[in-house]
Amino acid sequence: MLSIDSVSAEPMSIELDEPFGIATGSQARADNVLVRVRLSDSTLGLGEAAPFPAVSGETQELALRTLCEHADAFVGKSIANWRPLCREADERMSGCVSAACALSCALLDAWLKSLGCPMWLFFGGTTSVLRTDITIPTGTVRAATEATRRAVSLGFRKLKVKVGGSTLSEDVGRLSAIAQQAPEVGLLLDANGAFSAEEALELLTQLGRVREQVLLFEQPTRSDDLAGSRRVMTEGRVAVAADESARTCTDVIAIAKQGAASAVNIKIMKSSLLEALDMITLSRRHGLKLMIGGMVESPLAMSVSACIAGGLGGFDWVDLDTPLFMRRALSLEDAPVSGGFQGDSSQLRLDVIEAGHGVHIPS
Ligand SMILES: [Mg+2]
User: What are φ and ψ of residue 29, in 5° steps?
Assistant: First the structure.
């Protein structure tokens, strides 16, 4: 019987090529945490915590402290029982979801690596190729125009534009410049809960012809303003994705009952692994479409999400782009991680993964 020999956590900070700005704050560096689960046959499972202070309030320090506090409780246990172990991680680390997520991913990765099974096949092997959008963070018109030009030249067909971080007219100006640079691409707006329903509707109105390029409005209103979200969807006649308002299965049920969104953005980092899987099933049951996303994650956590989306299939929206913001750091000789899904642009390939999520630490 394979058992867990050790569980450890260490800081993993990755410089971004450019700051990742959203309505509620900005990150210039991903201050994440690497978790290692070593099995009795020396198999190494890896997980990543990506606390995003501006979204969840969690920090690298909290994730590290939480993981170190509970690591020993898992030593000696059988890895074959990975699901109850993940449940135990969620219960023990309820104060820091990104930490519980990191350990859960490392446990599953260790188990699948010991079996030689790629994670996307474990989840069902539905599709080996995903197409992600890329984010245009908050910032100046000039930066947005430049980022759009790059994205289009790399073949991206969907751009996720962060809005709500400045005035309405500045958002309109940025979106108009982006649309002018890329008249063929679909636009996903993400306000990270920064608007009232009136403001979100006003933005859609002021967009004029650019409005025709808008495919989805993510989290237009505050996470507790489901009525506002519903208003944006019905009065604005736009598809709405719930992100910050959908952290748990209970949230998904409330969203479905109130008709507050047409899609749910699934993120293992906000819900942890098992809850995210349950939310996927529940969203489908309630006729809600699925999006897969993440915090500011390296290819480690993001490959887990890609394996879930590709393995289970049926995700209409794929937003797994933050490794693209770490290109410089990941190309260095001392890069903290390598492997996982393969993708320099919008296309993410999963069939290159040999076992687990496929990410390893370069030796
Ligand atoms: Mg979002």
Answer: -145, 140
Query: In this predicted model, what pLDDT tens digit does every residue of 277-329 receive, in sequence order?
Result: 999 999 999 999 999 999 999 999 999 999 999 999 999 999 999 999 999 99
E strand or H helix at 210, and its extent?
none
CA 266–ligand 1 middle distance (angstroms)? 10
Contact 117, 307 (CB under 8 A): no
- Report residues near ion ligand 1: CB below 5 Å: 190, 218, 243
Write out pLDDT tens, residues 252-283.
Answer: 999 999 999 999 999 999 999 999 999 999 99
Longest dimension (CA), the chain: 63
pTM over 0.90: yes
For residue 248, the 8-state DSSP code is S
Residue among 80, 81, 79, 99 nearest 89 (CA): 99
Q: 151: CA distance to ligand 1 center in Å?
A: 19
Report CA(244)–ligand 1 centroid distance (Å): 7
